[in-house]
Amino acid sequence: MLRIAARVLCQRSSPSTSLSSCALSVIHRRYTENDNKTDNLSIANSSDRRKNTDNVSEGSKVKSPSRVTVMKKYWIFRYVDYVKNYEQVMEKNFPTTMHVYRVFSVGTKVFYQDLKRFLKVSKKIRKQGIDTLSTDELQLAFTMPKDLIRISPVLLISAIPFTFYIIFPLALYFPHVVLTSHYWSIQDKLNFMLKEHKQRLKHNKPLFRCFQSQINKIKDQKLQESVGNIVACLGSGTHPTVEDILQCKSLFSGLPYSLKHIKRKHVKELLKVHGMSTYTLRKRKKLLERGLLIKRMDAAIQREGGPSMLSYDAIRWALSFRGLNPVNMSLDSMQSWLDQWLLISSKVDADSISLLLHCPILLAYNHETNWTLLYHSQQK
């Protein structure tokens, strides 16, 4: 209305009235600008209201997901929980199968770790020599080649299609024959160790008879009496002292107890006492290698601080390897017996290595644990 009134006034006014016309033009311009501003504000408010409605609609969509989305999340969470608890479910439904699976999976991991260690030990032997190995490394170097020979056929045959169904039951029911100690349980390791040790103990008495039969061939009267006292101690259920044994050391580097002079039956029984096969060539050389291996292990134990520094499992293995049953023995008694062995080993060289090979009967023939294993188990 103001805009129309201004136009009418401009038309009715005379040209002489320039001031009034200018005033009216200013008023017209000002009100025009105000109208433009009001139009812009109305447009902006309408756009803001439209955005707010869009945001509200989007927020309502987020807050209220569809049923399909809810079902997807539900089944995804169920699947994740199932995967996390898969072993528990299988253990509950198939306990025997899961036990076998765990034995094979854990055993394979341990075997692979020992194989890598064995390769490092072999490399160390080539560069630095076998005399630089520790006790654990010497034990691994002794046991791993046998384990590889035992398990290699199983791995090769199981790689053939459909043969796994044959190997698996054999490995399950005959683990001592088909598998290595990496796949045995703690109880299996104990049972198999006792079984092997008992087979070795059966040859202690025949070896003692072979040792006793050579007394008359000793020419030195004093040495003959010393050996006679040793035989008397063993026959009466006791053991000779370390000093008594070392007095006869010269007899084991020559006649009649050196590896070169003992008879074939004596060699055979000595192999059996140490758990070695008699169906092999160069039997005396095999015995020499075994004796030197034992001496290296003894030297490694002494370098590392003596028997007191060995772990419980390590000292049990050391006693069993040297002919004494460690079952039901206290740690102090095991360390004391191994100390006696190390005293003799420190005085032995390559020429008198036969003395160290005879120590399983000189130091352990009448030991209580050996007799319990050999005779009480037979009575049962």
From TrEMBL:
It is a single-pass membrane protein. Residues 37-62 are annotated as: Disordered. Its main location: mitochondrion. Residues 195-380 form the Letm1 RBD domain. It comes from the Eukaryota. One of its GO terms (cellular component) is mitochondrial inner membrane. It is found in: Mitochondrion inner membrane. This is Letm1 RBD domain-containing protein. Keywords: Membrane, Mitochondrion, Mitochondrion inner membrane, Transmembrane, Transmembrane helix. InterPro entries: LETM1-like_RBD (IPR033122), LETM1/MDM38-like (IPR044202). It comes from Trichogramma kaykai. The chain crosses the membrane at residues 154-174.
